[in-house]
């Protein structure tokens, strides 16, 4: 298979990670960012915001009819969120593994949810669950101009060139 060295065809995979309001209130932002940095992923976008109900209903469009949706809105608007885009090989699936299952009771130690949370309604972090979901969520939360294309100086050490 021919691969051009300059275009790095497999490094452009991106995912959306958000530290939810409980994670921000509990001062977990730094520890969560550290896990993605130390794994070798590249940060390409980051911002802090108070989420609107409108944005939330688009983000969770498949959940708006669920019985827990009203409490999910209260939770997600209870303080600021820190939302990020991370890039790297297999980042969508690897991030889901790092974050752990939706219900922290089922999350292994070593995952973000398994280390920092107890209950499904306060599970600290969001991670896109598929490539398509990641693309949709990134477009929803970020403008293209706010995502940076940049070469990290250690890229040759974390990625096959
Ligand atoms: N959630 C909840 N109760 C439930 C299921 C989900 O409060 O019974 C919340 C929880 O915060 C979860 C979010 O809704 O992270 C989105 O649910 P989803 O099934 O998309 O899980 P995720 O992709 O976040 O693991």
Please state the second-level CATH architecture. Answer: 2-Layer Sandwich
User: Remind me, CATH topology?
Assistant: Alpha-Beta Plaits
Number of helices: 8
Shape: globular
Q: What is the radius of gyration computed over CA atoms, rounded to a whole number of angstroms?
A: 16 Å
**Quantity of strands, as a count:** 4
Per CATH, the class reads Alpha Beta
User: Which ions and ligands are bound to the chains?
Assistant: uridine-5'-diphosphate
Distance between the termini: 14 Å
Structural category: alpha+beta
Subcellular location: Cell projection, Lamellipodium; Cell projection, Ruffle; Cytoplasm; Mitochondrion intermembrane space
Enzyme class: transferase
EC number: 2.7.4.6
Family: Belongs to the NDK family.
């Amino acid at each position: 298979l021919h691969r051009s060295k300059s275009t790095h065809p497999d490094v452009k995979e991106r995912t959306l990670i958000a530290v939810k309001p409980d994670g921000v209130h509990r001062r977990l932002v730094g520890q969560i960012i550290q896990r993605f940095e130390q794994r070798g992923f590249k940060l390409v976008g980051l911002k802090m915001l108070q989420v609107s109900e409108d944005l939330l209903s688009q983000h969770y469009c498949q959940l708006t009819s669920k019985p827990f949706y009203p409490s999910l809105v209260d939770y997600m608007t209870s303080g600021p969120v820190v939302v990020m885009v991370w890039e790297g090989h297999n980042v969508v699936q690897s991030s889901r593994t790092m974050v752990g299952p939706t219900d922290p009771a089922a999350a292994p130690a070593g995952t973000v949810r398994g280390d920092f949370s107890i209950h499904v309604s306060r599970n600290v972090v969001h991670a896109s669950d598929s490539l398509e979901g990641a693309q949709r969520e990134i477009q929803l939360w970020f403008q293209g101009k706010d995502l940076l294309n940049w070469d990290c100086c250690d890229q040759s050490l974390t990625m096959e060139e």
